[in-house]
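Researcher: Here's the sequence for the chain we discussed earlier.
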Amino acid sequence: MTHSPLTLLGRLWPFFLLGRMDPPEEGTPTLDLMCPATPADLYAAYAPVFADTNPTAALGLELTVQDPKGERELDLWCKVLRAPLLKGQPDELLLMPSWLFLPSGQVLTGLSRLLTLDLFERQDVFLSAMHQRGLS
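Model: Thanks. This is the structure I predict for it:
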């Protein structure tokens, strides 16, 4: 099996995502277009982009969908992509999303750090994660 080199899309994400979509319904928020709210919608939006730009990431996304725990993982990615940008303000600690905490109260620090990145950087991390899964 041949694996593609990792190519990040950076600030070009909107062009790749919006260019591959069917025309959205009028009034659809940009957030819903760029960061779908459900795993099925995330797959529908990102699978064609991955197929065009990084076949290894496309394979990783397929493997994630097929994994019994994959829906939970993609649901977390939906939340990461949709979460507001954290800017390091002290009061942000009081407003951390509940999904970042385990039942024990422990913070999912890796995911919380992603919230300090701009959206296009989070999308690149998602692409990288799927690429890594495709390599396995």
